[in-house]
Fold this sequence. Notes:
Layout: E1 4-17, E2 20-33, E3 37-41, H1 48-55, E4 63-71, E5 74-75, H2 81-90, E6 92-95, H3 99-102, H4 109-121, H5 125-138, H6 144-148, H7 157-169, E7 175-179, H8 187-204, E8 207-212, E9 224-229, E10 232-238, H9 239-244, H10 249-256, H11 261-265, H12 297-301, E11 307-308, E12 314-315, H13 326-329
Helix pairs in contact: 4-5, 5-7, 7-8
Amino acid sequence: MTPTLLEVSGLSVRFHTEDGPLLAVDAASFTITDGEVVALVGESGCGKSVTAMALTGLLPRNADVEGSVRFAGRELTNESHRRLVSIRGRDIAYVFQEPMSSLNPVLTVGRQIGEVLRRHQNASRAAAERRARDLLVLVGIPEPARRLREYPHQLSGGMRQRVMIAMALACRPRLLVADEPTTALDVTIQAGILDLLRSASAETGASVLLITHDLGVVADIADRVVVMYAGRTVEESTVDNLFAAPSHPYTRGLLGAVPNPARRASGGLREIPGLVPVLRSAVDACTFADRCPSADDQCRTHRPESRPGPAGHPVACWHPATDDVRAEAHD
Ligand SMILES: Nc1ncnc2c1ncn2[C@@H]1O[C@H](COP(=O)(O)OP(=O)(O)O)[C@@H](O)[C@H]1O
Ligand SMILES: [Mg+2]
């Protein structure tokens, strides 16, 4: 069996805000094994980014974190600020939605990649330059020698995101966290960036946590999917199994809302009615009950814990769907 690289269990994040407490992540649990690409999927506001930031202590001071984040055998929630700073970038690297805001506008691409290498790996200037060039090749940037001398504003959005991925890969991290890496990009270049994450993972051995609100983009690139709703991880499965037999009604809703050219032509996306609730504290109920076609009294009074569902993979639902949708999906 492939060793587990990251094991998140019972992770909760509570923010103290002017309006009172806000429970952004509520006992989330999932794992990532070595070399695996895992997609964390859910609508906006479900707690995906907060989960990602909680892994390495990136949250602001008004956040209380509970639960466990084990990475390569170490408990990260107990690590000192200094240790976490060194883990970030070297062992766990991040790529965010908006590449321009993460790049320094006054430094050339070569300088920025070189600085990461010198900071984390004590690379000499010459070694850093060589490696920066190799990294641009790895992320599919043509004419790397020329690009290294350019500034971020001289690159297209897609190229900038490739540079961000190159910087993230610079120190050969074991885990790359990509938070909505294509959301700010033109649709025509999104697929290329996602393919790059997949191939970079294969080439470097890094695991990837791909965060997206769009279940439609994960089918081709992820090995497994973790579905998150209102701070909870509600379904976790291999991609094939999830698309063939989605068990949580929320996952089914997301699949219905997957943009699909045929549907778009026939009148737009089907959306899940209602909104993601903002939780003040943990509730003893299914948080999806208000939007769920299958909800009953049990759902409104008892929290469904995650357990193996009808398709074999874990699902947190009192009434998981049992039918296989493969036939339906192709009609
Ligand atoms: N710094 C913060 N202070 C207070 N609330 C926050 C903060 N960051 C995020 N939140 C809240 O936490 C919830 C989850 O947010 P987030 O993880 O960003 O969602 P997602 O990435 O799934 O769209 C949201 O309700 C958001 O408003
Ligand atoms: Mg987010």
